[in-house]
Amino acid sequence: MNSEILVALLALIGTLSGTFGGILTSSKLTAYRIQQLENKVDTHNNFALRIPIIEEKIKVLNHRVEDLEKGDV
Questions:
Q1: Are the C-beta atoms of 39 and 33 separated by less than 8 Å?
Q2: Which residues contact 73 (CB under 8 A, 6 or more apart)?
Q3: pLDDT digit of tens for each residue in the chain (73 aa)?
């Protein structure tokens, strides 16, 4: 086999393996970053679910304080 053809084939194999390796690495990094963002969103959603409960408790406490200040208890 001609040496130029052998060098060209080796270069093609090296280019293809490098390209596929880069694609795999990039997809793994993207999947990792998406997972981290999903974790942050889950944390935020837990706070969003708890805020209305906290607001309701604050309303009740405010009414109780108002009643104590009026002396109606």
A1: no
A2: 67
A3: 799 999 999 999 999 999 999 999 999 999 999 999 999 998 888 887 888 889 999 999 999 999 898 876 5
User: Residue 67: which residues within 8 A CB-CB, separation 6 or more?
Assistant: 73
Tokens for 46? 């837990």
- Alpha carbon distance, N-terminus to C-terminus of the chain: 102
What DSSP string describes 39-58? HHHHHHHHHHHHHHHHHHHH
Amino acid (1-letter code) at residue 63: H
pTM of the model: 0.57
Both tokens of 71, joined, read 């002396």
- Residue 41 CA to residue 13 CA, distance in Å, equals 42
